[in-house]
Write a structure and sequence with these properties.
The chain is built from 23 helices and 6 strands. With 550 residues, it is mainly alpha-helical.
Length: 550
Amino acid sequence: MKEKKIKSSVKFTILAVILIAVFCIALTPVTLQNDTYYTIKVGEYITQQGIDMQDPFSWHEDLQYTYPHWGYDVITYFIYHTFGFTGIYVVTCILSIILGITIYAINVKLAKNQIFSFFITIGVMYLIRGYIAARAQLVTFILFIITIYFIEKLIETKKKRYAIGLIIIPIVIANMHVAVFPFYFVLYLPYIAEYLIALFAETIIYRKVKTIILRIKIKQYTKISGKEEQLEILKRKQKELEATIDKVKIKRTKDLQNPYKIRLTKNSNVKWLILVMIICLFTGLLTPLGNTPYNYLSKTMQGNTTQNINEHLPMTLSEDVDTMCTLIIILSILIFTKAKIRLSDLFMLSGLCYLMISSRRQITMFAIVGSIILNRLVIELIQNYNKEKEIQIINKLTTIIGIIILTVATLGLSYYFAKDKLDDSYIDQSTYPVQASDFILKNIDLEQARFYNEYNYGSYLLFRGIPVFIDSRADLYAPEFSGKQEDIFSDFIDTSSIGKFYEDTFKKYNMTHIITYRNSKMNMIITKTKDANYKELYQDSYFVVYEIIK
């Protein structure tokens, strides 16, 4: 029986890994995002010039740049230099597969099941599909789910290898994606909070105080003759108090062993986790970026870039049905079933929900880390009602019919997401000015030109070697980072939305040319008014280039 169970487990694991890999490839976009273009160019610059903390790609003078994911930039450049855009796409597929398989493997390890780990992994990858791209965040997703595994195994076993892993991960993050360096420590907090609360719950403070007072009085009366009667009374009170404390402790222990909803566990190994966390606080110094890991996020939050970039905006649950359904499932299990939740998991889930609602991009961490919590709840729910059900399901799915059904279903879902990408190219010419850039490079002196361009395709222009007004490195153009008094990012936002007259911006920055979308508000005004101050040099189906006549 045991041998049959092991064989079924191995067969299902092989099937799960293959199907997860296929699904992850189906979700990986062929068309590159705007960040990928500047990533390649920054990586090239670092390999040739090193990290000088100055921006070389915009025509603004002396802009300070922090190179927040310099390690990833360099690696991406080498991949592009060797294999081109195809290499970047293939590596993105590989990272997506690694993420999916890692989520599955860690769920299996921590939640002790396979079948629900598979379905939950598919669900997680579906929820974060919009964030699978050739960006540094894909690496940090993998590192964060591994962090959770190392934390839980360190608490469980106190083995040094997990502590070493936890120390290495923030060093990698500080050099690959510095913006999320503080978030690494957020993952520790639920475990530490549970330990402190358990420690506090174990202590009956007011009775402890009474015990201390009685001990002090007994010690004093022992030294004074004629106080024997009072001394006996105090000793009797001390014994009664200690007996009461013991009874309360026994009752609390029983309550904690069989809680109504929340499991509270005091694990002394958390003390080692706190020590590891303190050591990790200093790992941000192991980077050529100086103190950037410690102040990057705070500077970002001070500026207005997060208020104007879509992925940083607060989430509206009514507009995100998938996430709302996930929350409903979790709440339903907690409210309407006998399933219990660990206090650390409750803290983690609550914190991730807050972060997700505050910034919609945090749905990624809610889905990735929350998958383990949901898995535990589902398994406990099943075990409360039918402990053998999971084994029965696995046995059925590992039969020939089960494998065929699961394979067809997953492949069908994969095809559904992949079919619209089959004809996609690496560069979307409706989004990025490919032909317009060809014209600019052939016909305009870039040494003298100062282009006005828009945020979304600025990275492609600098990739082509055209100095830009702005690109998707939003922090670079905010005064908190740039070292300039001008708020370039705000000037762009106001100009592109016609919140301020665009000619004022052109004069302020002494611009000579414009490249913009044909359907932009600015171009519509210039075209409608037939403004003689702008000479059209080039136009295609998506972009138009003007020279500013002064």
